[in-house]
Every structure is written in C-alpha cells, then in structure tokens.
Design a protein that fits this description.
7-stranded mixed sheet, disordered N terminus, Ala_DH, EC 1.4.1.1
Length: about 400
C-alpha cells in the first residue's frame, strides 16, 4: 500500500519560502562630527529581537540620541566595541553612506542601508560595492508605490520645521544676527521669509513661519506643488514660478531665504544664481536644506570638503549644514524606527527585501553588486540595470 505524502511538492515549497530566516543586523556608531541620528531606538530593537532577529550595536552608538548601551542591551541587542564585528552582520543600518574602509569590513553579499548623500559617495565606493557583490539601499529612494516616500517625507517634515527654528536662532543677537524676531509684533513690520521649493520641507517651513507671524513667499516651477501647498495650508499665501524679476525682488526684501528643492526625480535642476543672492540685504540669512543633494544656490552648490558649514558671503549668512534633522536626532531616530521596524519584522532575508517588499526593492541603488538606480547611475555617467533581472541571485 502506497502512503500519500503529507505535503504536495507545491505546498512544501510554499511552506519553505514563507519560513522566516533570522537575520543579523548591525548598528554602527556614526563617525561624522554632526551626525547623531540612529536607525533604531531601543523600543524598535526590542520588537526586532522578539521577531527572532539578532541585533549588534556598537558601543556608544545611542549616545547622540540619549539612549544608553544598557537600554539597548535590555532590549536584546549585543553590545560590542568591535566595530568590525558590527559590519560583519548580514544587514547594516547606517545614517551616512558607507566609507571604503567600512565596506572592506563587510562580508560578501551583505546589505548596507543608509541615507543617499551623493557628495559623500565616490566612484570608488561603487566599485568596491560591486566587487564584493554588496547590495546598497538609499533610505530616500524607498517607496511602496513610486509616489509615497516615507523616509524622505519624514525627514523633510522634520527639516522644514527645524529650518524656521534655525533661522530664528541665526537672526538673534546671540548668534551675531541682526537682532530681529522671526515673526512679527504689533506696530513692527513682520519678517519676510522666502521659501524655494513647495515640497514637504517647504510646506512645513511655510506653515511654521506663518504661525510665527512672518510674511512668506514661495517659489517653485511645479504648479501642482504650489496648488497643493495652498490647499494644505488652508489659507492664501504668495506663490510664484521662477520668474526672474519676481524672484529678484523677493530676495531683495527677504530677511530669510530657505532652499528646500528636491532633485531626486527632477529632470531639470533649478539653482538660484549668485547674482540674485548678491542683491539680498546685509545681515539676512540663507538656509540650504539640500546640501546633501548638491545645494539649491550657486553660493552653496558642492562646497568642498572642509569648507565651513556656516559662513558669510555677500553680506548674507549662509547655513549649509548637511542633514539639519540631526539637530533633533532623537525625534528623527524615532521617525526612522517607525518606518523600518515593521518592514524588518515582515522581511524574510535579502530575497524578501527585493522580491517581496516594494519599499526595499525601490530603495536599492546597488543589488548584488549591480548598479540598478537611474538617479545614482547618472551621477557617475554609468548605465543602470533592471533590478528584476537580478532578483533570482539570492
């Protein structure tokens, strides 16, 4: 008598494919001077380890967001002072892009996830990622549908709000400013704020400036974004496309200018010329939120390494600190944790990252050593491959 198998071949394959594979996740300490953000809080680590994954945290990594090693250890993380051990995990969650040295510590076919800050990524980085068949994900590229970008949106919200507090601080006497209150009081002309870019960061900055009583003007060449901004604010505010005369006049009367353009998806890069900035009032403040993308202004574009992040040019105080959300690192880390934690819990190894979860799939700029993102490829004049061709590698 022939006994029937307990599972058909198809059922067995489905059962195997849905089994969760434990992953090792490394969280290194950031070495850049101003970088304090982290991808996971202790609460997030607790949920990840409860799901069966192993988390390795470099000693002191949470200090910048005021979380102790003990808090992470109690959440189930392995704490180590061996930086190389952290980078030997299957998945590395960083904030800044990996250095060549850090990639050398990684094992073959590992996965590195970080912010995509193109000025910090050189061709040598791409070459060594390719040689080691490493997969790399840029947080800002992650999207479930090509329309919503959770990390980019969260960071933009934080930086838009932070820009107004930074401007207020820089205009005060304490920071050598003109001693002007950002906003307005009875009998005194209100501060004039010009915002370049009507995306998420620009919209939040406008809302914060209006709440303080400032007069605000918004410029963007995308009429849809300008219309959406008006609807989101629920009130009328001055908006314009980049009309040269209108732009020049706005800059001449502005006390604060905030650059909040996004260049990831734009075919044309709009940069405000130095001539326009020369016409600004002495003592005015210019804040560029897009230094990590190359800058919104001719006076801030691609500043050389070692150049002061806060400087005066043409009598205008420039604030060009990359990733100002690091000023509120704990808030930013909580926002990142809220996004990454459920995705990690639902993921089944690298194959799950690419083929099952659209967030991660869209975020790859390198997959198994192959360049698969058009935006990144264009920066190096290299061709991009279709990621679908390589998903079967793992």
């Amino acid at each position: 008598m022939i006994q029937e198998p307990l599972h058909s071949p198809r059922e067995l394959l489905e059962e195997l494919s849905t089994a969760r594979q434990p992953m090792t996740i490394g969280i290194p300490k950031e070495n850049q001077k101003r970088e304090k953000r982290l991808a996971f809080t202790p609460e997030a680590v607790d949920m990840i380890t409860e799901a069966g994954h192993e988390v390795w945290l470099e000693e002191g990594a949470g200090n910048g967001i005021l979380y102790s090693d003990r808090a992470y250890a109690e959440a189930g993380a392995v704490i180590t002072d061996d930086r190389k051990a952290v980078f030997s995990c299957d998945f590395i969650f960083k904030i800044t892009p990996p250095t060549v040295e850090e990639i050398n510590w990684m094992k073959k076919r590992a996965v590195i996830l970080s912010m995509l800050q193109m000025p910090d990524i050189g061709i040598e980085t791409i070459k060594i990622l390719s040689a080691k068949q490493i997969s790399a994900i840029g947080y800002e590229l992650m999207s479930p549908d090509g329309l919503l970008f959770p990390v980019r949106t969260s960071i933009s919200e934080i930086e838009g709000a932070a820009a107004i507090s930074i401007a207020s601080e820089l205009m005060s006497n304490e920071k050598g400013g003109k001693g002007i209150l950002l906003g307005g009081v009875t009998g005194i002309s209100s501060t004039e704020v010009v915002v370049i870019g009507a995306g998420t960061a620009g919209t939040v900055a406008v809302r914060a400036a209006l709440a303080l009583g400032a007069t605000v003007k918004v410029f963007d060449n995308d009429l849809h974004k300008l219309r959406r901004l008006q609807n989101d604010l629920g009130q009328r505010v001055f908006t314009s496309v980049f009309h040269p005369n209108v732009l020049v006049n706005a800059f001449q009367s502005a006390d604060v200018v905030i650059g909040a353009m996004q260049y990831f998806d734009d075919a044309v890069r709009h940069v405000i010329s130095e001539d326009v900035i020369q016409g600004m009032k002495s003592g005015s403040v210019l804040i560029d939120l897009c230094i990590h993308q190359g800058g919104c202004f001719e006076t801030t574009c691609f500043l050389p390494n070692g150049n002061p992040a806060i400087f005066e040019k043409h009598g205008v105080l420039h604030y060009c600190v990359p990733n100002p959300s690091s000023r509120v690192a704990r808030t930013t880390s909580m926002a990142l944790s809220n996004i990454f934690t459920p995705l990690i819990i639902q993921t089944n190894g690298l194959g799950g990252l690419g083929s099952m979860d659209p967030h991660f799939r869209s975020g790859f700029y390198m997959y198994a050593g192959k360049l698969v993102n058009n935006y990144v490829a264009k920066q190096f004049n290299l061709p991009a491959n279709d990621i679908g061709l390589f998903l079967s590698v793992y």
